[in-house]
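Record 1 of the preview.
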Amino acid sequence: MKATKFVAAAGIAALALTASACSPAQNPSAASAEGGTSTITVVVSPLVDAAPLYLGIDKGFFSKRGLEVKVSVAPTPGARIPSLVSGASQFGLIGTADMLQGVSAGVPLRAVTTTTITTSDPVQDTGKVYVAPGSSITKPSDLNGKTVGVGSLGGGGELSLRAALEKAGADDKQVKFLEVPLDSMLNAVKTGQVDAISSISPFTGAAEAGGAKYLMSPGAIATAGAAQTTVITTESYLQNNSKAAKAFIEGLNEGTTYAAENPQAVRDTLPTYSKTPKDVAAKMQLPVFKADLNRDRIRIWSDLMFKYGFVKNEISLDALVVPGG
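->
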């Protein structure tokens, strides 16, 4: 297990260093346009956690601060982190565990705020584990010796599930994890390819509609109150563009607050930038939108990553976490 995690982290670092070597050095003034407006590109995955960014653009939270914000879509962390290092993007939205993988491999990232945090409420948790209709599995410990489908190996979903299994009386070392595309999970558990699936919203809705039986909410058990989606940049960008960085963080935080207070706006905007159908967006479980970065929210993940061998060494959060930029 550990070798897999270390290879993943090394791969992110290699991609980032390659991007840095093959691209022009980041120019502190490159983001500035005529008339005093700064242009900032943000690299994201088209998930609901990015809604505050899109709402911030639509509602003028950035433009009123003298910013033109553009969005670059890159579904995998292995593409988002190099985009930052190369200077192609100035900020990125990323799962906290994925960010820590990059940091552990030596990428000079800085965390500046959050768009979503995890919850202690099993119902409100956007990640849930299901078994097939009629399955004999009724409690987490029944997963010992079984196979669980996860969206990706080595990421936050697998990590929180391992920790939750242990807390719930199972042995994560006796559970086999198999990477399964999220849109194929219901079929995988129904056909017996896996014994259980660890899915996320909006795919959890499809699982429930398809008769899958709820088993547990890993995040609520193991990572409650942690940073779910973290906003990151590079050390060099913060040092050379402090004014633009501060304005962007303030604008995004306003977008996050707006998302928290206006869930219907989130549901309306999600189909405009993702493949989520309108009818699914209207009913899906939304995450907890909250702009509240601190070391404790990151430490929940970093401690688990070290404990379960996702990183070789403990990660220092002193320089990594920069609330307010």
